[in-house]
Amino acid sequence: MNAEPHPHAQHFPHVPNAPHSHGHRHEGAEDVDWEALGPQLERQAELHLPFIERATAWLAEQLAGEDVSRVFDLGSGPGVVSGVLARTFPQARIVAVDGAAGLLDRVGTRAASEGLADRVVTHRADLPGGLDGLGAADLIWTSKVVHHLGDQQASLRTLAASLRPGGLLAVAEGGLGTRCLPRDFGLGRPGLEARLEAAEEDWFAGMRAALPGHTRVVEDWPALLAGAGLVHTGTRSFLTDLPAPLGAGAREYLHDRLGRLRELLGDTLDAEDLRTLDALLDPRAPEGLLRRPDAFLLTATTVHTARSAGATLPGPSRVVAAG
């Protein structure tokens, strides 16, 4: 799954394939050490396993009755999604592609621990290039990666060119941002998470504008997939819904995420919001995120699918999956 070192599930190559790295450094963006973030990316992806399993089962439905022998997990991060893909498509070899060698090492270790070392292989490459020599895929999965590439339309064309005739491309982009606290949780002004999301959107716009080859497009993903020469076959949104009280692993993930938001957006927030963030990040405080009983994890990830020419295709579907 692509990883989410970035605090917002919408903007990091995370998610739940959360947050995966594609090996680029961008002027104006934070200098992310993806390899150091490996444990956090793996923990985040494991929290999203129910979503990942539902999403890959949906892909299997679209490919039912077809030979699926080669699957690419682009922006694989530590390989949580690679393992799910291997179990969903038991006849397939999974190629985990990432730009960070340390994350690919984690892919290999995880695959071996799951008894999948013979079917999960790694390939180090920057995206969208770097796929030469891999051959054609029956299925390509990528999550929260395309929005980190300057020319999103051209990048989708490159990915489409790596599909076999009738092959399926699944792009996880969009959805809803993460929420973890009530609107009024008793500290500072109510609505902190809404203000953080607005500040992050501004940061993200600046990051995208600084990407090499940046080209602004309307982020209508079915239309972008059609512009890549593909036929849109479905759009589906999946919830990750962990109610309060949370377990320790989810709390630690949210604490890490909030800490990265504090680091990323600190210069743009007012003094009261900064004090509130610091109180939430205090590991000893009863009102801190690690201890308070009302913390939860709620987000939605949207997956868009499209086929290359060469197959008889059903009409597209748009579904919201609440569970």
Overview of the molecule:
By secondary structure, this protein is an alpha/beta fold. The chain has a single domain, classed as Rossmann fold. Strands 1, 2, 3, 4, 5, 6, 7, 8 and 9 form a nine-stranded mixed sheet that branches. Helix 3 links the parallel strand 1 and strand 2. It is globular and about 55 Å long. The relative contact order is 0.16. The N terminus is likely disordered.
Question: Would you spell out the secondary-structure blueprint of this structure?
Answer:
Elements: H1 38-47, H2 49-62, E1 70-74, H3 80-88, E2 93-98, H4 101-113, E3 120-124, E4 137-143, H5 152-160, E5 163-172, E6 176-179, H6 192-209, H7 221-227, E7 231-242, H8 248-265, H9 271-281, E8 297-307, E9 317-321
Parallel strand pairs: 1-2, 1-4, 2-3, 4-5, 7-9
Antiparallel strand pairs: 5-8, 6-8, 7-8
Helix pairs in contact: 1-8, 2-3, 8-9
The major beta sheet can be summarized as: 9 strands, mixed
Number of domain units:
1
- How would you name the CATH homologous superfamily? Vaccinia Virus protein VP39
Report the CATH C-level class: Alpha Beta
Shape: globular
Distance from first to last alpha carbon: 19 Å
Q: What is the count of DSSP helices, taking H or I runs of 4+ residues? A: 9
- Beta-strand content: 15-25%
